[in-house]
Amino acid sequence: MTRANIDWAIGLLNDGNTIGNIDTNLLGEGSETDSKMIAITDGPSRMGINNCVTNRGKHTVGNILQRGVLLGQSQLVFNGIGDIIHGASGAKAEQENRLLMMSDEARANANPILLIDENDVLAGHAASVGQVDQQQLYYLMSRGIDRKQAQRLVIRGFLGVVLSAIPVKTVRQQLVTTIERKLTDEN
Fold first, then answer.
1. Helices 169-186 and 147-163 meet at what angle, rounded to 10?
2. Residue 157 located in a structural domain
3. Within-domain flag for 183
């Protein structure tokens, strides 16, 4: 099938230890995917996520956008894998993996992986792991917002890039409600 399209909007907000694999194969010429994911880990939980898009057909487009927030002593690993196989000329593979640690005990790894076996392609990646900007919190707190609420606002802004890209309003709102509940339970 040519020009097939599948968009993923994934929210990983479960408790406990989790291993997840999301695999998308772009077979037909001109096929496209956008894989958007958010994850929130808390407590002592560990989460490892592999999100792989394989460009097999010519002129296929694979985009991965992942944002994760780590609370408490949790651990989170994002492996974003863009794989362009030989013969997939004109393919594009882009990915962005960003992780925000809200505690000194949290541990995070963002691993953008590009596997390219074709010359005529476009591919790129970005990754970051960091802690919340204390000046952002200070600014919000100087406006009368308590620290916990300020942290929730920073997290919402950080995840907003992915949340705003979810086209189905009811799904987006359900995800926001679940995120709010998880952040409230943590605090």
1. 150
2. no
3. no
